[in-house]
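A reminder from the course coordinator: this example appears on the midterm review sheet, so study it carefully.

Given structure:
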């Protein structure tokens, strides 16, 4: 199953103070696979232009994290547009990473990854999935896998987009899913951003 927009908004609300918040945003909005998000390198993020390169991955093989330099498929190694709902968490994460590097000094591991532990080492993919499931449980949401959340990017923006909005979905590829009615955002507002705003508005009212 795939979460509805309000459910995805509820998850991101709950995850906002999580260390993995930026990674969850990347998966939800840009449709990166778990290994692609965990294995993302700093050199593959254009913080000014708002774009991500899909390249190296970190996968789990026999219970161990294994780094792979090639993208999963031949068409995977490409740039993906990312809006402020992705880039703002990524910029905040980068600033925190720089501060941690200064605090740890020589003990900090300069691995070059975007999403790292406090010591600079990348995450284990299994931990990312476990943490995702924990946050989803805390939010009271129906159980889905991190892979399912990735599919929110190709389905929900297409189904929610206003016919006159003219914006493209953020995800790579051109596949669409069955439209869902009743969630049309105002013209000119990204559908996922609107869903998140609606969720937070309802929470505060």
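Designed residues:
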């Amino acid at each position: 199953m795939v979460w509805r927009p309000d459910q995805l908004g509820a998850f991101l609300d709950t995850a906002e103070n999580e260390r993995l918040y930026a990674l969850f945003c990347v998966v939800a909005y840009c449709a990166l696979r778990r290994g692609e998000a965990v294995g993302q390198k700093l050199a593959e993020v254009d913080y000014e232009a708002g774009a991500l390169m899909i390249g190296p991955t970190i996968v789990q093989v026999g219970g161990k994290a294994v780094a792979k330099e090639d993208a999963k498929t031949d068409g995977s190694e490409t740039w993906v547009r990312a809006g402020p709902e992705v880039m703002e968490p990524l910029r905040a994460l980068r600033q925190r990473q720089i501060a941690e590097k200064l605090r740890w000094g020589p003990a900090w591991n300069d691995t070059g990854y975007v999403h790292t532990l406090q010591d600079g080492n990348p995450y284990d993919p299994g931990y990312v999935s476990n943490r995702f499931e924990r946050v989803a449980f805390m939010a009271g949401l129906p159980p889905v896998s991190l892979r399912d959340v990735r599919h929110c990017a190709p389905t929900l923006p297409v189904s929610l987009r206003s016919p006159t909005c003219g914006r493209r979905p953020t995800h790579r590829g051109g596949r669409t899913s069955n439209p869902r009615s009743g969630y049309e955002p105002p013209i000119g507002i990204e559908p996922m951003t609107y869903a998140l705003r609606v969720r937070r508005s309802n929470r505060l009212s």
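Helices lie at 5-15, 21-30, 34-38, 84-104, 125-138, 146-150, 152-160, 191-204. The chain has one domain: 5-204.
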